[in-house]
Amino acid sequence: MLPRQLAASAINCAINIQKYSYATSIRSIPKSPQCPTCGAAFQTENSGAPGYLNEKKWRQMNQANVVKGLPEIEGTGESGKTEIPGLVNAKARKRSSNNANMLSDEEYKSIVSEIDDPELQAVFSGEKISGFVDPNDMQTGEPKVYSESEQGAKIDSFDTLLAARVRRRAEQGRDRVICQRCYSLKHYSRVDRPWKEDVVSDPRVLRFLQHKSNTMIVVVCDLFDIPGSLIPHLGDIIGARHPVVLVANKVDLLPKDYHEQRLLMWFKRFAKGLELNIQAIHLVSALKNLGVRELAADLTTRRRPGQNIYMVGRANVGKSELINALLRISIGGSAHKVLASHIPGTTMGLSGIPLRRFVKALVPSSGAQSHDRQSYLYDTPGVFSNKSIISYLTNEELKLAVCRKRIKPFSFILGLDQSLMLGGLGRIDLVEGPSRIFVTIYSNIRPHFTRIKRADDLVQRMQAGEKTILQPPVGDAERLKWFPRQELALEHEFEGLHKQHATIDVVFAGIGWVAINGLFPRAKIRVFSPFGTGVCVRPPMMPFEFKQASPHMSSQRKTPS
Questions:
Q1: What string of DSSP letters covers 198-260?
Q2: Residue 518 is inside which H or E element, if any?
Q3: H or E element: which one contains 537?
Q4: Which of 22, 110, 112, 398 is positioned for an S-S bond with 66, CB 3.0–4.6 A?
Q5: Is this prediction's pTM over 0.85?
Q6: Where are the alpha helices (DSSP H) in 358-476?
C-alpha cells in the first residue's frame, strides 16, 4: 500500500487536474457549469429539463472539477469551491488533529470508496495498475522510513504521472459528463417531455454577434426547407459587416439525379434576401460528409489569424452535425463531438470547441499556431420558426413527418375538383383549370387523393376525434381533437408552361413540397394547412425531375412507402 501521505496528496491531485477535459471546450464562456454536448447549464432540480444530472453524475462532475464556479451543494468549503464531502470531513479532522499528516485506516477507506473513477479507485486500493509502481513492492527488509524531502519528491513524481494519465483521458474525451437529456437523445433518440418547451424562437438571441470583432459567421440552412430554414433580415440581427459563408445542408435528401450547378444558381436567389456579406456558398451533406472537405478548405483559406467561427441558423438544419462532420475529418476530433438529433432544439446554449481540436480540417497538421490557440468554433442554439408546420407535432409524429433519408419523388394525376392531402398537415385543392394536372411529391408523408367534398368530411371527422386515413397526427381521440384545424393558407392562380417541366413549387414548411407540372392556360389552387401557416409558393427547385405518373392512386392504398 502507498504511504498515507502520498495517497492523500495524489487523490487531491487527481481531483484538481481533471478539470482539463471540459474547461478546454468552454474556457471563454463558462458563466455556469454546462453540458459539453448541448451547452445547457447543469442543474439538479428538474429531471426533465435540459442540463439535469442525477446525484451520482453531479458528484462525479464535482470530483473531476471539470468546470469552475459551481453552485453551492453539500460539501462546499470555505473558499466557495465544491469539494468531495469525504475529503472535506478529512480536512476538518486534519485541522483538529495533532497528527495532521496521517489518516486512519477507516478514514482512508472512506475517502477511496467515494472515488467514482474505477482506475483511480484501483490505484488507491492497492491493486496492480500498469504504469504505477508500489514502493513497498521493492522493499526486502524493514519498511524504509522516508524523510520529509524524500516524501515530497515522491509525491511530485506521482502527481506528474497521474496528471499525464488524466490529460490523456481528457484528450480522448473519456472524462466528459453529459446531462440526462443528452444521454436519452444519444442512446434512445427520444426526450422525456414535449420538445417545443426547450426551443428558442426569437432570433434576437443572436444579437450579441453585432458586438463581436474578428469573427466569421457560417450560416447553415436546410436545403429541404427553403425558404423556411432561412432567417429573414439576418444581417440586421447579427450585423452585416461579418464575413459570411452560406451552407445549404442535407443535399443527401434530394434525388440522386439533381443538377448541382442549377441547384446552386436557384439557391442564390433566396440568399439575396438575407442582407449578409456572403463570401461563398456551399452545398453539403453533414451526415454523409459530402462537400465537407471542400467547405473546410474554404474556411481555412478565408479565416483570418485568431478569428472565431460561429455556426448560425434555424433549429434542426444540421449545425451540430456539420461540426461533427468537421471533427470526423480532423485528427483525433471524433472524441469531442457535440450532440446532433432529428428533434429540433437539441443545442440549448452557446457551446465552444477549440480550433486546435480540428487538426487537418481547420488548422494545419502540425497543430494550431500561436494566434489560434485561443480561437474557438461555436455552436449556437437554433432559432425555431413558429411558421413551421412541424411545430404542431409530438415526438412520435416527428418521426413520420421529418425526412431523414433520400427522398424518392413520385408523380400523380390531380383531377379537377380533387384534393391532394398530406396527412392532416397539408392539402391542395384544384378548384379551376384543366381537367387534370400532374403533381410531383417530395415528402416523407404518404399522399391521399380524393374528392374535395370527401376531403372536407375527413377533416371534420378528424376534428371530432375519429381516427382516419390522415396521418400524422396520431394518437387517441383527445390528441386528434386538439390538433390544429386546417385553414385556408393561400389561393394561387398560375399558368402551366410545359408538359413535362414543373411550373411552381407549393412548399409546406418543414415537411416537403409539391411541384406542379403541365401545359395549360390557367389553373387555380387552394392550399390548406394547420392554422393556415407555413405555406408558400416558389420557383421550382428541380423543374426537370418530373417522372411518369405513378400507376397507382393513393385511394387504392398502394402508394409508395
A1: G-B--GGGGGGGGG--SEEEEEEEETTSTTTTS-TTHHHHH-SSSEEEEEEE-GGGS-TT--H
A2: strand 512-530
A3: strand 535-538
A4: 22
A5: no
A6: 395-401, 452-463
